[in-house]
Design goal:
Chain lengths: ~775, ~240
């Protein structure tokens, strides 16, 4: 008996062995990934819930910044070539922008202590697609409706430039709660895309992704230019499985031993009709007859040549809608008989009635038929046009997800223009549309900015500086939640991310503004700072004389403290906690959500400024001699960790200490304007955390990206005796530079990052503002 | 009775039993003593390595390979570990390979000496091919491949034993061909239906069985080496045998 070849590694399996020896021994190097050995801050690993070609899936509880049940996929080391790993985080960032009820959301990604990449996604409790079909035995129409919802989800991703590449029934789960499908592992296959080659490498890559049963011929052949039509093909195979409860290619593939045999078998495969392929007993006679009408549709979806397939998922979906509403499908043979039959079945009652008058019958039938033909004629687009559209969308999707939703926003430049136009009579309406657009697309920073501009118009507010229409905080990215506008000459800090989809402005903004105006009318004091919670409008405001008040949309102002320093008034970026400084010595932390003061710290030295980390866990106090005291807020009575970033020329000239916390506050990055190093510290121990980064020029700004995978820095250097500045992005994992912006005149005074790492914006001392999609700044 | 469909049901780890004789270096060392137990242990030990030695002997083209294999183990039993260096650092595989090579060479010399007299010229005729070291790549490879497969088989037998004892004999029957990662979809579907599990529960159960199998295999390999580094060397070497 000849030795078999392993489907996974392509090596020989001895005839007297049940398993592939090569895979057996290589499995030791895949890392055990035992759940008890996984240590990922912010997550509690509960159990393994699955194992796939890419790795293991765990059920986990996310404990911070929000508490929720999640699924965590830890990728196998062997599945991650070095080059692939560096692309992983970037790709996950793009995928995180997909939001559709039919797509399991990807929340975040990272690496385990052992360096295994992982990503965290929405936990879907339910059956796989085929389990659901086997258990529920849905009717033909029910199956098709679920299939259409799957198509909707895939189409949503296509519009945003994401191809799934590994669509198969096990990647589709039917939610227990609402019986609606959720597609998982979107675009993950792309992460594993290697250089295109022939032979075993392709085998390895393809096999890594899973079974070839649902893959398009071009994927199996290892072609480079995979496009959305590959997903159309996979959907066609899934349709066969859903309707027949059998896998179209399984039997054929099982007969082929070598990879080449499998490719040849698929190439020669002639798809059977759905009715002959479907076993008896699944459908009644009427449904089985209808099944025949779907043959053309299914065949078109799985055509071997891409040009012969449906060119988009929406075309396929449209044909299904036609089928379900008894209209002729575009994939059917263009015969007069077929179309007439469909027409008659759709209009049988009318035809019977009208047949009483023969002449009218004839005229009406012909007219309606012509109209029907016109109505269903698909708008043809060339593949080139589709690809151009796709590429354009993919590029733009990193910044603006769906250009079709707001017709007036056609490009990034256009979006910028929109945000910079002068306020005029039409401004409110246009900004309102922009708010809707950005909030739908989850760019909350932009939504807040657009809202801010809209709100300014609403209250007829003037910008703080009449020479600048919008400051960077106003109109670009507002990730720290401090968008400012002028209220009777007082700086108003509109804090937190205002998310219109969660909190319609009308709910509390007007009431809050009314309360503040009432307080102003009855008091003679001036307000210097106002900070509001984004959730319920709970607000703190500070008067010029240092009195701190708490106010809500429904309750009048209450004085809660005195002698508070405006310089030491800080809020975390999620706008849930505020820290303030009294007389340079005493630091208080105030919970904005509950309206309670929760911690009071007596600082060991005079403090100049304070900073609260996003998750409220760490409070950093900076002394005038630029020592950092890092407190864990819950353990504020304990001694703080002391961090001193000693600049190389420390003592010779003064300079500023810059620092930024990672997302969960476990790492602090520090830099000094007189030093050329960025240093990293463990906030729990105060010890150095990994190697420093050497930078060029003088650092002016330092910020962790929202995910903390990247660090953004703004630096300046002198060119022809003039200062020029530039922005860098550094990989935290590899501690090297991954992107650099062009030079700008002047100094970068503001650096803002969007909430989802989707964009970065700067403002310079020359009043120039610029914004880039994530990782695109070198372009 | 354990719940057949519950993937969380742990596979109970069995202690070493007589079904799975100890294969450690120490067996050879204790064999130097004269106790009966030591003799029995060495006997069992020899049986454990029958297949790789036999594969080597066959690849060398020795006439009547089974008898020669048997003779080799008789020789080992008689020797009772004599000639083994006190310092037992190193791989058991290498030690056995050396031993069988010496044994065959000795046998060959003895046969030639008997046929031609003590002064006869050295000409190889009884072996299928010359015993020139340069031509020994294939027998070496046969020995080493069989050695690795032997370890896999032993781990598999222990897994079967454990699963049968914890009421998961049927699980083993379906999963035994899926331990290295590959899955026949048809068999998998049949297993899911027969075992009354959901697809995801089956996946979890299979994950745990694979993990246990790796653990047992690791234990088998560790018995033939003395350090963790050697263990990893062995894994790399075994992988190279099939790539």
């Amino acid at each position: 008996m000849p030795n078999e070849t392993c489907d996974i590694c392509g090596n020989e399996i001895p005839s007297d062995s049940l398993n592939c020896p090569h895979c057996t021994f290589s499995a030791f190097f895949a890392g055990d990934q035992a759940e008890d050995s996984l240590n990922i801050p912010g997550f509690e690993i509960l159990d393994v819930i699955g194992e796939g070609g890419f790795g293991l899936v765990y059920q986990a509880e996310q404990t911070e910044p929000v508490h929720r049940s999640v699924a965590m996929k830890v990728l196998k080391m062997e599945a991650m070539a070095k080059a692939t790993r560096s692309r992983f985080a970037e790709e996950v960032q793009t995928l995180a922008l997909l939001e559709h009820p039919g797509i399991a959301r990807i929340y975040e990604s990272g690496e385990t202590d052992e360096g295994l990449p992982f990503y965290v996604m929405e936990l879907v409790q339910g059956l796989t697609l085929m389990e659901w079909i086997q258990q529920k035995k849905p009717t033909l129409a029910q199956r098709l409706i679920v299939f259409q919802k799957i198509c909707d989800a895939v189409e949503h991703a296509h519009i945003r430039g994401v191809i799934h590449r590994d669509l198969k029934p096990t990647n589709i789960l039917i939610n227990n709660e609402d019986s609606l499908p959720k597609v998982i592992d979107f675009g993950v296959a792309r992460v594993f895309e290697g250089p295109v080659s022939v032979g075993r490498e392709v085998t390895l890559d393809v096999q890594l992704m899973g079974t070839p049963e649902f893959m398009s011929p071009e994927q199996l052949a290892g072609e480079a230019n995979i496009d959305i039509r590959s997903d159309v093909y996979s959907l066609g195979c899934i349709l066969y499985s859903m309707l027949s409860t059998k896998s179209l290619f399984r039997e054929t593939l099982q007969k082929a031993h070598s990879w080449k045999d499998k490719l040849d078998a698929i190439d020669e495969f002639a798809p059977p009709s759905l009715s002959s392929f479907t076993p008896d007993g699944i459908y009644g006679r009427t449904e089985r007859n209808r099944l025949k009408e779907l043959d053309w549709l299914a065949w078109k979806a799985i055509a071997k040549k891409r040009d012969d397939r449906y060119q988009t998922v929406s075309e396929l979906n449209l044909d299904l809608t036609r089928f379900l509403s008894n209209q002729p499908i575009s994939a059917g043979p263009p015969s007069w008989i077929y179309r007439t039959r469909k027409f008659l079945s759709r209009n049988l009652a009318a035809v019977i009635t009208l047949s009483m008058v023969m002449v009218t019958l004839l005229g009406t039938t012909i007219t309606t038929y012509i109209l029907a033909l016109k109505a269903v004629a698909p708008k043809e687009k060339t593949v080139q046009e589709l690809n151009q559209e796709f590429n354009k969308n993919r590029q733009l999707s990193r910044y603006i997800n769906n250009l079709h939703e707001v017709a007036s926003i056609e490009s990034l430049d256009h979006a910028r223009t929109l945000m910079e136009f002068e306020l005029n009579d039409q401004a409110g309406e246009r900004l309102d549309r922009a708010v809707t657009f950005y909030s739908k697309n989850q760019d909350v920073g932009m939504a807040a900015a657009a809202f801010n501009a809209w709100h300014r118009k609403q209250y007829d507010l003037k910008p703080a500086d009449p020479n600048i229409l919008f400051t960077v905080e106003d109109h670009i990215l507002s990730s720290d939640g401090k968008t400012r506008f002028d209220l009777d000459g007082v700086q108003f800090h509109f804090t937190g991310f205002w998310d219109p989809s969660e909190h319609p402005a009308s709910e509390w903004i007007d009431e809050l503004m009314t309360q503040i105006k009432l307080w102003q009318d009855s008091n003679d004091e001036r307000i210097s700072e106002i900070i509001s919670s984004r959730h319920n409008g709970s607000t703190l405001f500070l008067t010029k004389s240092g009195d701190l008040y708490f106010i809500t949309p429904s309750t009048p102002a209450q004085n809660i403290d005195q002698h508070v320093s405006a310089a030491g008034f800080t809020i975390n970026s999620s706008a849930t906690g505020i820290a303030y400084l009294k007389e340079h010595k005493q630091i208080s932390i105030f919970d904005l959500e509950t309206g309670e003061k929760c911690t009071v710290i007596d600082a060991p030295a005079d403090i100049a400024t304070i900073y609260l980390s996003d998750n409220n866990k760490h409070l950093t106090a900076v002394t005038p001699d630029q020592t950092l005291y890092v407190y864990e807020c819950l353990e504020a009575t304990l001694s703080p960790k002391v961090i001193r970033h000693t600049a190389a020329n420390d003592g010779k000239s003064t300079g500023d200490l810059l620092f930024s916390f990672s997302r969960f506050g476990s790492v602090i990055a520090t830099a000094h304007t007189n030093d050329s190093k960025i240093k990293f510290w463990n906030s729990m121990t105060g010890e150095p955390h990994g190697p420093p980064i050497d930078i060029e020029g003088q650092i002016e700004q330092l910020k962790f990206s929202r995910s903390s995978f990247y660090l953004y820095t703004a630096q300046k250097r002198t060119q022809l005796n003039e200062p020029v500045s530039f922005l860098n992005i550094w990989s935290m994992q590899y501690r090297h530079k991954i992107a650099e912006s062009p030079d700008f005149k002047g100094i970068i005074t503001d650096l803002e990052l969007s909430k989802k790492d989707s964009a970065a914006g700067i403002r310079t001392s020359e009043n120039k503002t610029a914004v880039w999609p994530f990782l695109q700044i070198s372009k | 009775m354990p719940d057949e469909s519950d993937p969380k049901t742990e596979i109970k780890s069995s202690a070493y039993t007589d079904d799975f004789p100890d294969t450690r270096w120490s067996v050879i060392l204790t064999a130097r003593s004269d106790s009966d137990d030591a003799g029995d242990a060495l006997d069992q030990w020899c049986r454990s390595y029958w297949k790789p030695i036999n594969a080597y002997v066959k690849a060398r083209g020795v006439n009547d390979p089974d008898e020669t294999t048997q003779a080799f183990f008789v020789h080992m039993l008689e020797k009772k570990g004599a000639g083994l260096p006190d310092n037992t650092k190193g791989k058991l595989r290498a030690y056995l390979m050396r031993s069988v090579k010496h044994f065959i060479t000795d046998q060959w010399r003895k046969q030639n000496a008997q046929k031609r007299g003590s002064n006869a010229e050295h000409v190889g005729i009884e072996f299928g091919h010359d015993i020139d070291e340069n031509h020994e790549q294939e027998p070496d490879k046969q020995f080493e491949r069989r050695w690795a497969l032997n370890l896999m088989e032993r781990a598999m037998q222990r897994l079967e034993h454990e699963m049968a004892h914890s009421g998961k004999g049927l699980h083993f029957k379906y999963m035994k061909t899926m331990l290295s990662g590959g899955e026949d979809p048809k068999l998998r579907q049949e297993a899911i239906e027969t075992l009354g599990m959901t697809s995801s529960n089956f996946r979890i159960a299979l994950y745990r069985v694979r993990k246990r199998y790796r653990h047992l295999l690791e234990d088998e390999i560790m018995q033939t080496v003395t350090t963790r580094e050697e263990f990893e060397d062995e894994l790399n070497y075994f992988m190279s045998l099939w790539s």
